[in-house]
Amino acid sequence: MVIALRDNDIRILTDDEGAPLGTIDVAEIDRRATLLAYRLATCSNDHDQVDDALAAELGQVGSEMFGFVAASALRMVVTSVLDPVLEVTDRLTEAGYLRADLRAGLADAYDNATATIGGDHIA
Fold first, then answer.
1. What is the rounded CA–CA span in Å between residue 77 and residue 111?
2. How far apart are CA 80 and CA 34, in angstroms?
3. Which one, 27, 73, 92, 97, has the greatest CB density within 10 A?
């Protein structure tokens, strides 16, 4: 559970009974996630650089905060990087300039992953 402190960006994390576990700075998480998301996107063709960027962020924020930053960065990569790219490829496919439908290919890859490694299919 997360409890807001007034109108600032600090949140208290609590357990299921409401006992405080710690605090997080939402603005700092958002700032770091934005930088990490675009860093990952710019080095996506070099897996060593991706690993280095992730390791550097983990070293900067520590393991307790890294999950929050990484989850937020992942969302940003999907919504602010991947989705616009797929919109362009959708238009190129519709216009006949691109033969592969990348969005359909991703859906097929997801279906294959759930069939191969198991897990529930997320709707």
1. 21
2. 10
3. 73
Query: What is the rounded distance in angstroms from the CA atom of residue 54 to the CA atom of residue 35?
Result: 11
Q: Is 38 exposed, middle or buried (0-12, 13-18, 19+ CB in 10 A)?
A: middle
Cβ-contact 36, 43 below 8 angstroms:
no
The model's pTM: 0.79
43-79: pLDDT as tens digits: 999 999 999 999 999 999 999 899 999 999 999 999 9
Q: What is the sign of the dihedral through the CA atoms of 54, 57, 61 and 65?
A: negative
Structure tokens, 93: 């496919």
Tally helices (H) and strands (E) across the chain: 4, 3
Each domain of the chain, given as residue ranges in start order, spans: 2-117
